[in-house]
Amino acid sequence: MQFRLEKRREPSKAMIYITPVVAVVLTMVVGALIFSLIGYDGIGAVREIFLTPLTNSYKWQDLGIKAAPLIIIGTGLSIAYRANVWNIGAEGQYVIGGLAGTGIALLTYGMTGWWILPLMVLAGILGGMAYAAIPALLRTRLKVNEILTSLMLTYASVQLIYYLIRAPWKDPMGMGFPQTRLFSEAARLPTIIPGTIVHLGVPIAIVVGIIAWFIMTRSVFGYRMRVVGAAPHAARYGGFSENKTIWLAMLVSGALAGLAGVLEVAGPFQRMVPGFPTNYGFTAIIVAFLGRLNPLGVIVAGVVLAITFVGGEVAQTTIGLPNAATGIFQAMMLFFLLAGDILIKYRLRRVAPQPSVGAA
Amino acid sequence: MELVLAILITVVGASTPILIAALGELVVERSGVLNLGVEGMMLIGAIAGFVVQFHTGNPYLALLCGAAAGMAASLIFGFLTLSLSANQTATGLALTIFGTGFSALAGSSYSARPVTLMQPLFPAEFYSSPIIRVIFGYSFPVYFSFVMVVAIWYFLHKTRAGLILRAVGENDQSAHSIGYSVIGVRYLAVMFGGAMAGIAGACFPLLLTPQWAERMTAGRGWIAVALVVFASWKPFRLLGGAYLFGLVMTMELYAKAGGGPLSAVPSELWAALPYIATVVVLVLISIRRDASTNAPACLGKPFLPAN
Prior knowledge:
Shape of chain B: globular
Helix content of chain B: over 70%
Number of helices of chain A: 14
Structural class of chain B: mainly alpha
Radius of gyration of chain B: 19 Å
Oligomer: heterodimer
Radius of gyration of chain A: 22 Å
Distance between the termini of chain A: 13 Å
Low-confidence stretches of chain A: none
Number of strands of chain A: 2
Largest interface: A-B, 42 and 47 residues
Order of helices and strands of chain B: HHHHHHHHHHHH
Helix content of chain A: 55-70%
């Protein structure tokens, strides 16, 4: 028996939504198999990584605060990727956003006032935008590939953290640790549910996703992004300038990555530390794809990826699975999703075996 | 004089892995495929090379296994992008995320375990004088990288197979209509690129730091991808580019070691310099001329036969 791919008359809407689910399920099945083969408790790994965070209500708060930055960054990336603008330096924009917020927090150290947090958030957003503006400028003015520049700037931004917290921003009372002082009360993100670690960033993330969905589906901006990505020639005829679209895509994705950065430093961290870059910016790439570049999908995908993060930590303590396993599960999810993409435009047809020899 | 020689030797060591990885990516891109998974394939090659070197102490076997591991990883990319026409940019990124996770998992029980560095290719009597040492004092991968520059140039421009590969990259539909297997050629190119990235990765534990460290390639795979653009897809320019970057990275090492005028600048700036330099170089190359003119015409586009 043989299968053949046959082009569909039009892309399958159903497959757009089915394939991400199938990708997650396949990741669990194949992941269990592979991890069993290499000598770990494969079924246990899948159970701990994918199910425990959901069944154990004590883990829900962790899910919320891990999902928030992934959703915020993933939303921005989904908008940029829709327009075929490949910002993969969200991690760097997240870092600069966090640093900008830290700068405000340190400047206002010891002060009180409701205005401090909004100012930090604004600084974070502007910082992320400014850092994303570099690849945007180079791409629109000089046609420099934004993939490479945004990524290189990410590596540079991490060094900027190391420098700032080693020298000018170092905590004078930190006993030599390279980190800033703990932010004062007014510069910390409040928790919204007493007794938990769930901070204001969680509802912000959901609101960001929903607003982005409205904008992408109901506004000229959203239409522009989708048309430029799907049909660049038509977009040009329609009067949408390509450069302006690139600018918008980079600035929006940079702003949201910066927002995630400042919320993260003011929320869970409350100071700048060397471990601030936690790969949210890279994982958000998977989130954007798994969410089918649709902001509502990104909210779901952000939760799924947060489950793997939280579950990865669970599996580390309960069955001794190395933390790196999480990354493998996440990458497998993206592999299966990308493989499944072909089913949107093609369908599998069973064909009778050809009697002729040499059919490949 | 001694210092200059020492610096030269360090530059060669830093440049070699980038050059090898970039040469592989150059062939892949010439066939019309953009594989952004170089960093991931390098990490997989690095851990494979490290593990083999740790258990056998045979660096040639380690390089070979690094190549095989890199090639195996590239087949994931090849299958998704060539057989299933998945988006090349996204698949390459996925491969890098996968390689980072896979190498960290495989290496998790090997941290802080040293291996022996690869010995120079020629016997020690050969390079008793320091000047001769600069020419003959290196281990196998260094000479391999030089030979590959020439070999790839010769292959691309002087052989029939190279012509077919370029044709596939420049105009896949025509190549297909004359009867060449576009997908087949691209599979071979992607596998070659994977093997080269794997060797480049294995160079890290074998030539540079004789132990395993997570993410030990530290973005060098991405710099290799950038260098291919910088070199406008030409092997000899790649040689120059890789050595330019090797020099920048060596400056970082010397600045960190302290002493001299270099240490006046914060060490983090030196550490960031290769990445900043990559951006600057990409800018310069596009100011000089339209960088896209030399890019293979089908770069990054999936091949779907017209009928």
